[in-house]
Amino acid sequence: xxxxxxxxxxxxxxxxxxxxxxxxxxxxxxxxxxxxxxxxxxxxxxxxxxxxxxxxxxxxxxxxxxxxxxxxxxxxxxxxxxxxxxxxxxxxxxxxxxxxxxxxxxxxxxxxxxxxxxxxxxxxxxxxxxxxxxxxxxxxxxxxxxxxxxxxxxxxxxxxxxxxxxxxxxxxxxxxxxxxxxxxxxxxxxxxxxxxxxxxxxxxxxxxxxxxxxxxxxxxxxxxxxxxxxxxxxxxxxxxxxxxxxxxxxxxxxxxxxxxxxxxxxxxxxxxxxxxxxxxxxxxxxxxxxxxxxxxxxxxxxxxxxxxxxxxxxxxxxxxxxxxxxxxxxxxxxxxxxxxxxxxxxxxxxxxxxxxxxxxxxxxxxxxxxxxxxxxxxxxxxxxxxxxxxxxxxxxxxxxxxxxxxxxxxxxxxxxxxxxxxxxxxxxxxxxxxxxxxxxxxxxxxxxxxxxxxxxxxxxxxxxxxxxxxxxxxxxxxxxxxxxxxxxxxxxxxxxxxxxxxxxxxxxxxxxxxxxxxxxxxxxxxxxxxxxxxxxxxxxxxxxxxxxxxxxxxxxxxxxxxxxxxxxxxxxxxxxxxxxxxxxxxxxxxxxxxxxxxxxxxxxxxxxxxxxxxxxxxxxxxxxxxxxxxxxxxxxxxxxxxxxxx
Length: 646
Fold this sequence. Notes:
By secondary structure, the protein is mostly helical. Among the domains are: 23-191, no CATH class; 571-640. The protein has helices spanning 2-19, 27-50, 55-73, 87-105, 107-112, 119-140, 143-157, 172-180, 189-211, 213-225, 231-244, 250-268, 272-285, 297-304, 308-337, 350-357, 362-372, 377-392, 402-436, 438-450, 454-469, 474-484, 486-491, 496-509, 518-527, 531-541, 543-554, 566-588, 597-611, 615-645. The longest helix has 35 residues, at 402-436.
């Protein structure tokens, strides 16, 4: 798969150039960036192995690396020099070091004086807030920076805001002190998770990619599903799900797996729009796939104060249902079009794939094992990285050489930059909401608007999560939507974990929801199709993902949790799985043969009845689906008999 590896790298580089964001360096500047990124990774590896620094110190050093690299790598405007940082960029990088060094150096004085600040602290605080806003603008565009600015203004003029969001207003000293000198603002919990769990698991993913794990996932999926009906589409579903276990970005997942699955799907007979939509929907689902879950899993677990392994177990069945829905629909589309799989002699052999690269899965198994045994996720990630280096040496084709190790350290740090920048600026938003009490007020506003009814609150929350998540990284989308919408769901009786997973799912699904559908845009670029058409088709394929969150909101018994008996989880998961299959057939209008309109309606209603767990609804759902299924079987047999007679 060396050709595929080269194609993937070229596609990623092309995607980078199209975005016009990241600079590419040569010569001395390239060496400086490489050294900074490697030192950043080594710092995080060292603190993970030998103990973290005090929270603000750990986070300030982490943020210093992030800001310096952002100002070097991301130009201020499209007219900026794409090959070297300007004097202005060097100045911002230097100010970033000063502003973060001040809080790290002053930490013990602030702790001993009860947070009593001096004038320079306020100046550095204002400076850092501006630097964080500018860094976020360069890496993610204007949405988050504008939101942060609006919230800061709201902190000043709250006494003039009409309605329930009114507050007494705060001085700039109080706001800066809260955002800069406490762990409630920029250096809050979100940046804390970024400086520990998120960075380490992104680095872990970079090491796995360096060993050839991406090629292993692709070959493994090809060997399992390539020969099946509509094989390339199923390979896309599997490889994107696997890639999601180590990848924290929908667009990166699309580029990595779609560069070879989309052309294959088109050659097999799928339309370009459908091929791009399959990849977009599957790659979006990669963000809900344990253990990384778009790097948001660590924040969810930390926010809820629950063991990380319990979160992974709870998220497993919903993720499985999501991918099952896409799998069923590509299978039915292949049946409608009469598409076959790829010849087996053109596919990698399963035994050969396991023999040559199967050992690469050991670090992931080890991490899951350590988490199940109660080890800290940071500790597990560190040893996962160590094991990835060790097991790669078992085969000369996967063995990591020194330059490959250094490249993995560099790419891991660079991949973490946009996520860390998002976490820092979200700290401003979260800090203002905690200072003003806006989070509780916003939750109450959602409840008031929905009338306090569960269904209307869930629907309103869904739209809030999708709108707020558009164009944002997975982590940023979750944090914003959970701060605004999750409290409202918890107030109406939704289990806290279900509430947070609910907003997380719809924040992720915003990546395929037009008009700002970054995942659909990436897939459409490869497929050569209209992004909006690709996005709407992806929504059809991912429809199960829009329904499953309602299931665990109403029936948390489908989640694998210590409080839920295994037989209850199995029953709920089974009925939901049957419902997902029925939903796919209703959308495609095909079971064993094309469906009539009333048959599609019956199956559609039956699917919803099964997905929503309950004895009565399950009986109704199975009954409706069984009637259509028997009618389809009878029609198919009659057609076969007529063909034989003819």
